[in-house]
Amino acid sequence: MSLRKKSAVQKAYWKKRKIMAKRQIKDYPNISLEIEDLSKKTDFSDVFGRPAPLHIEIGSGKGTFLVNQAAAFEQINFLGIEWANKYYKYTVDRIGRRAVGNVRIIRTEAALFLSEYIPDKSVDCFHIYFPDPWPKRAHHKRRFVCAENITQMIQCLKKNGLINIATDHTGYFQWMQDEFEGFAKKLKPVEFIKPAGAKDNELVGTNYERKYLKEKRNVFTLAFKKV
Fold first, then answer.
1. Contacts (Cβ under 8 Å, ≥6 apart) of 174
2. So which residues are the catalytic ones?
3. Which one of 86, 163, 183, 198 has the fewest beta carbons within 10 angstroms of its own beta carbon?
């Protein structure tokens, strides 16, 4: 990269940082959910105020997928689960400012939330894009994609429900493949569904993917249908 181009990139970066620093993050109670307000095995038709297919994104980050996908599929209810407080607040603000009505966000631990609050056979699709790979061997037990959580997702999925996954981490990708092998009788491999916000050179279109593509990283995908 030339010095001139590098300087322009740096200026754009710091300009964006200044804008973000000045931006006041707002809460939108019609979008953000509080776990204490929900009942166990929640009927999300009541939460959204309408019956509709339910898609859940685990690890919403800055909400890029939710913004684009919800706008493209207004007939679907989207629930985002995010643990990192700064990303959760940012996504609530982003969705609220754009007045996207078919999205709700909750800050909670995903595995526990699925087991206690999501009814059996109620979810049409799980989206998991660039989950934390927890690369150290001692931390592998923290990875979301594991046999226990796959079992729970299958229980939550409707018949023919989908799981759509993307990662940039080779080791985690191999781990996922190994974990899903144990569910061959319940999940059938299918073609990965490219989200609406993905550009021609992208598979998902999230902030993480765009960062990784600049770093020349490979992106791996998995997709399954409940049988």
1. none
2. 132
3. 86
